[in-house]
């Protein structure tokens, strides 16, 4: 990306300029502070000026010189100096409303996402295309063909297809880049309001400079990253829509910094551009949209010279929209606008830096094609060497004896290379030049099929499925592991307050709804102190914003569904959160208003797992700490003497019911204690380096000796169709792992309810727990031993691990945990962090398994991006996961159709297309090789250049592209019999064995075409051009019948493509034969008038397709696969047999299987066509007693696979 007008090479220059301007602005700012009015610098006496600012470079230089004079330094001084140096290199200074400084130091706001320019498009695009090995190979071949001494055909036969393919790729790149240019142009030329020279002006967005004051109206798009300094709301609040940034659909609240409270609207207009009225010290631009650690210092006439910390809540980022911001007071706020100044601009914004091209994912099919291409290349080199040696030998022994050859007695030094190079050019078509373009085209169509699937539209929200990544659809059919989030993915993410335990008393156990519990209602009415405090924490320990409508009804804007459920429940129990005015919260309890002042907010993080607020009761002046969070983050910090056993039992009971639990607590703070802690909190909150870690450390010093008030239990319903989808996919042999942040018992109950695991006695859960390495080691060893000795038939074995034990296992016992992952089909990982989710995906990928990760929230993004296939659900947590994923769906149940229908069809079609591409190229190449044996092994081409070029680009490409419409089985059959996905998972349709079959078919068809054509037309019977056209006709006819034979479901388009292409072959050649200069003059006319020609073509088709048809008939009749049987049942129109009723031979297996695999029973029903022995699933798959698909391997094979998979990472 182009970073606006700022180049990387200018960094050093910018730093020098920054130092100079910092010193200059320090003087100007000091002048302004001293006089409190704007006046010329010359009018201020030198002795009137105040000291330089503490962040100035001048001060730092003086301190640094002083330190160097000291002979000895303490370790603390050295650490402080290193920290200061590190901070100075990682921050920048933004001068508010100072055009001169910002224009010299920083980039402008011009956005450029273009990849090319008019000048560099051609060289850059060619460089990118020729960076691929296959394109380099074809370029080398094309260049060699320019050497007239060695080329057997016209160079146009290679240059034509090469230029055509490169032109198609370049055109696509150019079109995409042009669209990016139009999008950038539209954004750059958008009109915005800024304040310059004290006047509000209209300028284009690209002309905004860092430090400019920018004005937005309601519903305006934010043109760059901004820090709020004023809003129309008296509380300093505004609402922004961040869906374009993070995908989250709920409106977010942003607030101006405390230092900017009360700035007069008119005062902002009076500031001249020559003087800055403040400086922001912030880190260098980064792409973290969740975090912003900075400090701001404003100067008179606005406020005294005090440091004010800034967070992400004080910013509005580029591409957000201003929504629902109402002006609370009159004069300066009539235009429904609020004031901001630009902080980062152009591609230095967080959005601009977070944009980027994701790393391409290599599918299993692409990897196999690369291997097959390499094998063909090696075979080609061997053929070239052998034929080159044979050609040179024949030339020296026989050719020189022939009078018509006219070989010179002595040739040049490179004479020995001529014939091998001719054969290299002749055999170069073994690797199909069009395969990449063909695959890219059909993969784009696969993605469109997913977008167009009406059965995958969520009827409730109207959300369609979407394929963001168009290159990996076939991998969907080879998924072996699905790693799924729980909340919002398996469940609705609609939180409802159901039960609670307050001071040891359980509410809602009988009715199932605490809000209808008479005992709780009576406690609220009687003013029970414990209940009132519990409800108070529910109502105000959150970040919820109450919004009052014109009718007086109150609604809540919450960033968390849990918080919304708690606030709504408290309101129904008469503890109503009615208003938030700046830091003052108003609670309406039984018609009386209670006010609390929020002093500090200790925000929730995934590490702390709790959130707290420090509030001051405005009635009695008491300072209170209110906390809520997970049980392990609250209960251990209870005050000494308080019994927490009842609360632990409540958490356990609610978890077994599948409810989410939150513990609530509070503590009264002494004023001195709070004042001392507040200073530490402000200091940590103003640091630029490791602010989050330091805040957590300071918060820990306050969140202790808590009085536990109770436990709240929240219900989250399962989505419709989840149990059925999981059961179907498990029948397809897909393993499931649930990765959730919930408690263990809650996750287990959800897993049982959605068929994730089987209840006793069918299922068995093995727990891995422990807080120390020894405890985890013993637990892991016990589970592994159980896994090894437990048969898979009678029990569905799964293991459960929590985040603490998982962290120890991944760090110290990775090899053992990897073995456990291989042996187990199901796992439940509780209390895991986003980084641990990504680590588990990486672990399974290291064992060569195809993984699919699915989630719905921002905490699932790392897992989704790490997996081979990422699927995001467009849920209540927004679109962040859906935007980061390769595929997005509206509901979890659509995953079944995505994998079984779209994934399986894509794999089948790609497998056929890729192997057919090699087949057609090998066919024509083998004919060329056979012809060399009757042409003195000289490397002479049988076919002319025009025929070869048309053969690769037109004659054989169009019919196979229509294969994207082919379906071997109907969608209904595929959904009813998910076991047939095993063929795709094991690579049954594309592997060295199937490729060997296509290789043999091409060799056999080449022999048939060559022998019949030569015997019918060669020698003195006709011209060489006629022999060439007969052989080419035989190839085209054979390929038409091959495509027809491999097609399972015919449509009008497929018939038109196959037989219409055959007719087009004759039409094109008749037209070419009418041109005297074509080299084929009258050839096709003469052949078509000869009955002998048509007899020869029919003979080629019968001889070539007869054995193929016979073999296929034998296979379908006497040795059918499960898919063949289902196809026959569909075609007969009768009932489709259950795969469990299909007879198959029983196979006994050795008793001693690898000790790393689950013990199998002696006699099982195997698939007649075993899914390749190299399938990783073979080591540990079990599918229940009703499943007829099972795969076994020898002990040596299992051991080798395990030793390969269980590598230490």
UniProtKB/TrEMBL annotation:
The active site is at 485 (4-aspartylphosphate intermediate). It is a multi-pass membrane protein. GO terms for molecular function: ATP binding; ATP hydrolysis activity; ATPase-coupled intramembrane lipid transporter activity; magnesium ion binding. It comes from the Eukaryota. InterPro entries: ATPase_P-typ_cyto_dom_N, ATPase_P-typ_P_site, ATPase_P-typ_TM_dom_sf, ATPase_P-typ_transduc_dom_A_sf, ATPase_P-type_domA, HAD-like_sf, HAD_sf, P-type_ATPase_IV. It is an enzyme of class 7 (translocase). Its cofactor is Mg(2+). It catalyses: ATP + H2O + phospholipidSide 1 = ADP + phosphate + phospholipidSide 2. ATP binds at residues 485-487, 563, 604, 628, 660, 740-742, 831, 837, 859-860. Residues 57-86, 1157-1181 are annotated as: Disordered. It is found in: Endomembrane system; Membrane. Residues 94-159 form the P-type ATPase N-terminal domain. GO terms for biological process: phospholipid translocation. Residues 189-250 form the P-type ATPase A domain. Residues 882-1121 form the P-type ATPase C-terminal domain. NCBIfam families: ATPase-Plipid, ATPase_P-type. This is Phospholipid-transporting ATPase. It comes from Liquidambar formosana.
């Amino acid at each position: 990306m182009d970073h606006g007008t700022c180049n990387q090479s200018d960094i050093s220059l910018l730093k020098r300029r920054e130092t100079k301007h910092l010193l200059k602005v320090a003087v100007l700012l000091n002048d302004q502070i001293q006089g409190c009015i704007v006046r010329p610098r010359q009018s201020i006496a030198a002795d009137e000026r105040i000291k330089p600012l503490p962040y100035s470079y001048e001060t730092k230089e003086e301190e640094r010189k002083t330190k160097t004079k000291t002979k000895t330094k303490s370790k603390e001084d050295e650490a402080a100096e290193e920290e200061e140096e590190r901070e100075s290199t990682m921050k920048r200074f933004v001068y508010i409303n100072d055009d001169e400084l910002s224009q010299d130091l920083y980039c402008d706001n011009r956005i450029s996402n273009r990849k090319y320019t008019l000048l560099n498009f051609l060289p850059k695009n060619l460089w990118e295309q020729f960076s691929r090995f296959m394109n380099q190979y074809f370029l080398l071949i094309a260049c060699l063909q320019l050497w007239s001494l060695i080329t057997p055909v016209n160079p146009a036969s290679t240059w034509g297809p090469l230029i055509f393919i490169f032109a198609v790729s370049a055109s696509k790149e150019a079109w995409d880049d042009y669209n990016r240019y139009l999008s950038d142009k539209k954004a750059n030329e958008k009109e915005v309001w800024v304040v310059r020279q004290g006047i509000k002006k209209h300028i284009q967005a690209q002309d905004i400079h860092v430090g400019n004051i920018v004005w937005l109206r309601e519903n305006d798009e934010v043109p760059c990253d901004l820090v709020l300094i004023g809003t129309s709301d008296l509380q300093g609040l505004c609402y922004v829509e961040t869906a374009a940034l993070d995908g989250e659909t709920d409106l977010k609240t942003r607030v101006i910094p405390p230092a900017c409270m009360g700035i007069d609207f008119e005062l902002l207009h009076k500031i001249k551009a020559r003087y800055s009225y403040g400086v922001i010290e912030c880190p260098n631009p980064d792409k973290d949209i969740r975090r912003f650690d900075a400090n701001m210092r404003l100067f008179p006439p606005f406020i005294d010279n005090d440091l004010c910390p800034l967070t992400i809540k004080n910013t509005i980022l580029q591409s957000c929209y201003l929504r629902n911001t109402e002006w609370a007071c009159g004069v300066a706020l009539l235009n429904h606008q609020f004031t901001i100044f630009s902080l980062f601009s152009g591609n230095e914004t967080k959005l601009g830096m977070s944009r980027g091209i994701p790393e391409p994912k290599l599918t299993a099919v692409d990897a196999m094609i690369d291997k097959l291409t390499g094998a063909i290349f090696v075979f080609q080199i061997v053929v070239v060497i052998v034929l080159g040696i044979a050609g040179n030998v024949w030339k020296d022994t026989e050719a020189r004896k022939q009078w018509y050859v006219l070989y010179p007695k002595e040739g040049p030094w490179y004479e020995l290379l001529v014939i091998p190079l001719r054969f290299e050019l002749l055999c170069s078509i073994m690797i199909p030049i069009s395969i990449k373009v063909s695959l890219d085209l059909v993969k784009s169509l696969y993605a469109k099929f997913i977008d167009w699937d009406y059965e995958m539209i969520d009827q409730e929200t109207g959300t369609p499925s979407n394929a963001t990544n168009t290159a990996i659809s076939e991998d969907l059919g080879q998924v072996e592991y699905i790693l799924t989030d729980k909340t919002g993915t398996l469940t609705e993410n609609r939180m409802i307050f159901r039960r609670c335990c307050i001071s040891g008393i359980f509410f809602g156990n009988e009715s199932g709804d605490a809000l209808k519990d008479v005992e709780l209602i009576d406690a609220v009415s009687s003013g029970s102190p414990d209940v009132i405090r519990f409800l108070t924490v529910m109502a105000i320990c959150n970040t919820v914003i109450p919004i009052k409508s014109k009718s007086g009804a109150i609604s809540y804007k919450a960033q968390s569904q849990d918080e919304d459920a708690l606030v709504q429940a408290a309101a129904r129990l008469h503890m109503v959160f009615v208003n938030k005015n700046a830091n003052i919260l108003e609670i309406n309890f039984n018609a009386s208003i209670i006010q609390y002042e929020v002093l500090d907010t200790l925000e929730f993080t995934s590490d702390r797992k709790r959130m707290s607020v420090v509030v001051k009761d405005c009635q009695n002046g008491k300072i209170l700490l209110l906390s809520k969070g997970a049980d392990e983050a609250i209960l251990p910090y209870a005050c000494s003497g308080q019994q927490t056993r009842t609360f632990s039992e409540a958490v356990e009971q609610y978890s077994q019911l599948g409810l989410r639990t939150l513990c609530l607590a509070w503590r009264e703070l002494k004023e001195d204690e709070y004042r001392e802690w507040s200073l530490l909190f402000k200091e940590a909150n103003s640091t630029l380096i490791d602010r989050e870690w330091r805040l957590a450390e300071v918060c820990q010093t306050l969140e202790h000796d808590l009085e536990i008030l109770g436990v709240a239990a929240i219900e989250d319903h399962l989505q419709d169709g989840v149990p059925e989808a999981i059961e179907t996919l498990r029948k397809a042999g897909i393993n499931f792992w649930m990765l959730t942040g919930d408690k263990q018992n809650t996750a287990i109950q959800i897993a049982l309810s959605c068929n994730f695991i089987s209840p006793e006695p069918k299922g068995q859960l093995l727990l891995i727990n422990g807080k120390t390495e020894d405890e985890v080691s013993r637990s892991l060893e016990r589970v592994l031993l159980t896994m090894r000795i437990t048969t898979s038939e009678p029990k569905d074995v799964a293991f459960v691990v929590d985040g603490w034990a998982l962290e120890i296992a991944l760090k110290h016992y990775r090899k053992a945990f990897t073995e456990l992952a291989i042996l187990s089909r199901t796992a439940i990982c509780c209390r895991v962090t986003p980084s641990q989710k990504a680590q588990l995906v990486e672990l399974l990928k290291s064992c060569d398994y195809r993984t699919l990760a699915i989630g719905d929230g921002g905490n699932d993004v790392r897992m989704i991006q790490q997996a081979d296939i990422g699927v995001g659900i467009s849920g209540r947590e927004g679109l962040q996961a859906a935007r980061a994923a390769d595929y997005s769906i509206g509901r979890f149940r659509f995953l079944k159709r995505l994998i079984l229908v779209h994934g399986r069809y894509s794999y089948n079609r790609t497998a056929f297309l890729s192997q057919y591409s090699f087949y057609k190229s090998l066919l024509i190449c083998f004919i060329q090789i056979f012809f060399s044996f009757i042409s003195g092994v000289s490397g002479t081409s049988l076919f002319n250049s025009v025929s070869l070029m048309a053969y690769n680009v037109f004659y054989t490409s169009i019919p196979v592209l229509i294969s994207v419409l082919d379906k071997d089985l109907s969608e209904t059959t595929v959904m009813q019999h998910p076991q047939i996905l095993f063929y795709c998972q094991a690579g049954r349709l594309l592997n060295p064995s199937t490729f060997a079959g296509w290789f043999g078919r091409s060799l056999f068809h080449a022999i048939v075409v060559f022998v019949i054509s030569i015997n019918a037309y060669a020698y003195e019977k006709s011209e060489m051009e006629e022999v060439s056209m007969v052989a080419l006709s035989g190839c085209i006819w054979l390929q038409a019948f091959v495509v027809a034979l491999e097609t399972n479901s015919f449509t009008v388009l497929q018939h038109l493509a196959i037989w219409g292409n055959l007719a087009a072959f004759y039409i094109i050649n008749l037209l070419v034969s009418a041109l005297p200069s074509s080299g084929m003059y009258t050839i096709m006319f003469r052949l078509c008038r000869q009955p002998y020609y048509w007899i020869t073509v029919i003979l080629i088709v019968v001889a070539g397709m007869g054995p193929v048809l016979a073999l296929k008939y034998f296979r379908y009749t006497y040795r059918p696969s499960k898919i063949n049987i289902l196809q026959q049942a569909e075609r007969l129109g009768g009932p489709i047999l259950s795969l469990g009723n299909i007879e198959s031979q029983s196979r006994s297996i050795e008793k001693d299987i690898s000790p790393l695999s689950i013990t199998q029973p002696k006699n099982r029903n195997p698939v007649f066509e075993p899914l390749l022995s190299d399938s990783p699933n073979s080591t540990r798959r079990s599918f229940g007693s009703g499943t007829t698909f099972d795969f076994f391997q020898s002990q040596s094979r299992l051991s080798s696979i395990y030793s390969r998979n269980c590598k230490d990472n």
